[in-house]
Specification:
Elements: H1 9-19, H2 24-49, H3 59-65
Amino acid sequence: MRITFEIDANALKEIQKITGQKKKSPAITSALTDYLRMREKRAFIEKALAGQTDYPLTNDELEARDVYETR
């Protein structure tokens, strides 16, 4: 989807630096994708800590599948 918006030039440069993207659109897309992934992780952790999840796998099973990210 194509949109137009204003963004601070220094913030855009920082986003490009952090994401490693030289072009503006890929930098913004990468930053937004990372932000959304972080929010999803945070929401899941909050639910898990509150005991509101019924996740069937144990930690050992998760590690055996190697499905977690190592960032």
